Amino acid sequence: KTLRCIGDPEKRFSEDALRILRALRFSATLDFAIEPQTAFAAVKLRGLLARISAERITSELLILFEKGAPKRIASLLTEFQPIFLQLFPELAALPEKQYASLCELSAKLPTGRDAPSYENLRISCFLAANGCTKRLLSHLRLPNTFRKRVITLEEALPAAERVQNAIEVRKLLYRFGQPACEDAAAVLKTSGANPNLTELLNKCLQNSDCVSLTSLAINGQDLARLGFTGPNVGAALKKALFAVMEETVPNTREALLA
């Protein structure tokens, strides 16, 4: 259960620098230790990763985070911090304790093995919960949908941390959408910052609570018949939606039109 290069590790890594990340990926997914000389050479030659394409780097990191053993991921992110700072230099601005907490939190999160909605949540958290998300994303070649997910998670986390009841959950879902809210709830449950959010969120989803204009019992045509025109239609619909989310008006056609 030990990873080592065949022969001189510096020579092996110089032949293909991606082997540095493969060593970390194999260590995470197999839960193997990395032999000291191999580990030393990987850190020493980390600068060679600048020659590797973003696509190849992204591929290794996605597997490392998604398939790795939690304790091994956390130890790799801290023990081999110089390698990750080579990939994401912006993280160097984080205080040591904050970086260590980020690594531990990301590693503990559920993965796609637990539920499909959690696929790649670990790396999403690692990229989102540090204050420099957009710059970090520029180093990786990710689909636009994935990039949007990470950016939305960064925006949702501070708001989600303050949510304490069903009304606030509905407004959170309206503002950020279900995927980002589920991501934020999982992160905050794992960190302990808001462990009750997952249960509140699940109740709203199970009850099919009205959290969008499409689920409202009236639409723009209804308001047009009442004489609303132009921007007033959208404003009135939004006001009606918030009245429903705040439980001051039931989501029925009659009550909303009245």
What topology does this entry show?
Blueprint: E1 2-3, H1 9-15, H2 18-30, E2 33-34, H3 36-44, H4 54-67, H5 70-79, H6 81-87, H7 96-108, H8 121-128, H9 133-137, H10 144-161, H11 166-176, H12 178-191, H13 197-206, H14 220-225, H15 231-245, H16 253-257
Parallel strand pairs: 1-2
Helix pairs in contact: 2-4, 2-5, 5-7, 7-8, 8-10, 10-12, 11-12
At a glance:
This protein has 258 residues and is an all-alpha fold. The chain is 64% helix and 2% strand. Strands 1-2 form a two-stranded parallel sheet.
Biggest sheet architecture: 2 strands, parallel
Shape: elongated
Question: In sequence order, what are the helices and strands, one letter per element?
Answer: EHHEHHHHHHHHHHHHHH
* Poorly predicted parts: none
Question: How many distinct helices?
Answer: 16
Structural class: mainly alpha
What percentage of the residues does DSSP assign to strands (E)? under 5%
Q: Please state the oligomeric state of the protein chains shown.
A: single chain
Number of strands: 2
* CA-atom Rg in angstroms: 23 Å
**Integer average pLDDT:** 95
Task: Explain how this protein is built.
The protein has a two-stranded parallel ribbon with strand order 1-2. The protein has 258 residues and is mainly alpha-helical. The longest helix is centred in the middle third of the chain and has 18 residues, at 144-161. Helix 5 (70-79) runs antiparallel to helix 7, helix 10 packs across helix 12 (178-191) and helix 11 crosses helix 12 (178-191). 64% of the residues lie in helices and 2% in strands. It is elongated.
